[in-house]
Amino acid sequence: MRFARLRAQRWYYAHRGVDEPMRALLSSRLPTDRTPLDEAEFVALDIETTGLDVATAHMLSIGWVIVRGGRVQLQTAESYIVRPSKGVGDSASVHGLTDTVVRAGIEWGVVLDKVVSVMRGRILVVHHAGLDKTLLDRMCLKRYGVRLPVPFIDTLELEMRRRRRKHHLESASSLRLSDLRGEYGLPRYLAHDCLVDAIATAELLIAMAAHRRATSLGGVLD
Q1: With 80 as the cut, is the pLDDT of residue 101 above it?
Q2: Cβ-based neighbour number of residue 29 at 10 Å
Q3: How far apart are CA 110 and CA 160, in angstroms?
Q4: N or C: the chain end with fewer CB closer than 10 Å?
């Protein structure tokens, strides 16, 4: 019954009436705990923002890649610079996206339509849902009047739950994407590029599933 609440949420949103592409997303299939991993499709996604306060942050860039059949489908990778409604500010020192760069970006609503479209029938994967998923929810509320109603996996939360079960909680810094990849035997990538981080998150999910010997979606989420 893990996805029952999401199913009810979609039913409610659909009966309220929403525009495309959200309408198509609401009618797309939802997985179950018994869905085999090699049949499930995931969208690993990462966002660069103007800050870490999700209530005020604006999207500056976004990248994603599809995981299908237990493999990262690199040919599906997409990334976009997003034109924000405010200046970049001090965040440029972190991600290198200056006001000049983002001024030539795509309007945020166009990019959000692309995100909603690629999510049909798929599971969102992020590292730190408290920022990325919450920001997407806020943007969807503004554009469609509803939150983003998709199943999602937070690789950071998965690892935290694993450590709690083992009574093995290290410092928060060891939960960073690059640090976790090292623990699962994955190479280090350059940080602060949203597409690279999306691919890195996709690979981390695959490694985590293999470590758990999971064969179904429920085996990853438990």
Answers
A1: no
A2: 9
A3: 34
A4: N
How far, in whole angstroms, is CA 72 from its chain's centroid? Answer: 14
Separation CA 130–CA 179 (nearest Å): 19
Amino acid at 114: K
Output the pTM of the full model.
0.90
Q: How many residues does the chain have?
A: 222
Structure tokens, 154: 């937070």
pLDDT value, residue 55? 80
What is the C-alpha to C-alpha distance for residues 138 and 149, in angstroms, rounded to an integer? 12
Residue 47 belongs to what H/E stretch?
Answer: strand 41-49
> CA-to-CA distance for 123 and 25, rounded, in angstroms?
12
Q: Which residue has the higher pLDDT, 64 or 49?
A: 64
Nearest in space to 177 (alpha carbons), one of 122, 126, 123, 136: 126
62's tokens: 């976004």
Helix (H) or strand (E) holding 13: helix 4-16
Which residues, at least 6 apart from 216, have a Cβ–Cβ distance to it below 8 Å? 33, 34, 35, 36, 37
The C-alpha angle with vertex 201 and arms to 221 and 185, in degrees rounded to 5, equals 90
Rounded Cα gap, residues 188 and 182, in angstroms: 7
What does DSSP say about strands 41-49 and 59-68: parallel, antiparallel, or unpaired? antiparallel
What single DSSP character describes residue 105?
Answer: S
